[in-house]
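Late entry, evening session. Most of the bench is empty. Finally got around to the prediction I had been postponing all week. Sequence below, unchanged from the version circulated by S.P.
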Amino acid sequence: MLKRILLSLCFLPLLMVAQHNKNEKCKDKNRGIDQLPCTIAYRYGTDIIPDEDAAIKYIDILINKRELLNPERAKPYQISLIADNKIWRIIVKNYNCRNCNIYININKNTGEVLNFYRSED
């Protein structure tokens, strides 16, 4: 009987602390096209896209593959790091439309394209 009481006194606080973070839900299912995911994957010790030159080459391939624009005419890109330097944010000026931009967010570590959308500003 004494063992059960001691076990319950020891494990009850642990169970309460362990269940504390379960109430926070990630809303990736309802995430908008321009929002970043709740969790950003970090799998490799070295970043796949470590610098701006690699990001520019990667964007050239993406734009050319999707046949949106000619990469040489769309340059220069606006490149910045967001989310604690984990994500490359690239803004490509669309030369076919005066106020149109293409926004691309890429995970720096995995090379995953998180967002790819066009917006008229």
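Two things to note before I forget:
The two ends are 70 Å apart (CA to CA).
The beta strands are 78-82, 87-93, 100-107, 113-120.
Will write this up properly tomorrow.
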